[in-house]
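Problem: given the chain below (303 residues), write out its structure.
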Amino acid sequence: MSDSEIETRLRARLPLKRMAQAYLPLWLMHWLIRHGSKRVQLPDDVLRQSVRADGVSCDWLIPENCLPDRVLLYLHGGGFVYPQTPPHLQMGAYLARESGLRTLMVDYRVAPAHPYPAALEDCVTAYRWLISQGFEAKQIVIAGDSAGGNLTLTTLMRLRDLGLPLPVAGACLSPVANLAHREYTGPAGEDPLLHPKARRFYSRSYVGANDPRDPLISPEFGSWQGLPPLLIHAGDDEVLKADAFKIQQLATAAGVEVTLEIYPRMWHVWQINLPLPQARHSLNAIAQFLSGRLRKETDFSDD
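Solution.
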């Protein structure tokens, strides 16, 4: 099958996925995800180990011949309401192999049963657990997609505010930067994957009774000072492309090194479709960015 045929076939499935997000019961989606996660197939050269990081459910994904002292902390997406899915585990395994980094996948608590700040607390706890295991901040990078991209940014902001040393770099795949009341109308609201009904449910579920303009809910309203270098990837066809541009603007204004790449014709978190060439291209670039930042930090520290 040609590259264009793969893209066409995957795009043809988007309307069904879009409707499922909006109309399938949440309990059924959770059951399907949990059932699939037990049976997910990962590459033979990537070891999966379940672990509790000070009470937070996580999975180690450890590729063969990885550097034992360097870690990618990965925060999955899913609108803040879905647990870690089989495709997220497969994407995490791909990143682990390509970067040569052992990867800690954080299966944080999800809304609406656990609204903000539960997910953020779990992500911060997982990072602090890594430190307690002997990893130094200069040996850790962080990344996440969609809701996990939001949590990547807010985790960095929270760690900074706590006075803790930060990971050396962060990568966000189609991140959401603003959960305040937004109107998804007109052409900008016509996202091929994210249904407006689902987006409203995701936001309301996570925000709960809190102020959606809280910087640790909507990092667009926060301080970006002192954050590490960032890489942002978004699709040209997704509504959250606007969030990606806003992140670039705010980070740049705060003196943060940030690189934004917009992929033509791509939809929200297309990287989860590993047969897609654009998915592998994006993930390879992210792996190179994260591993390169770790090498640079380590080499600098050793001088």
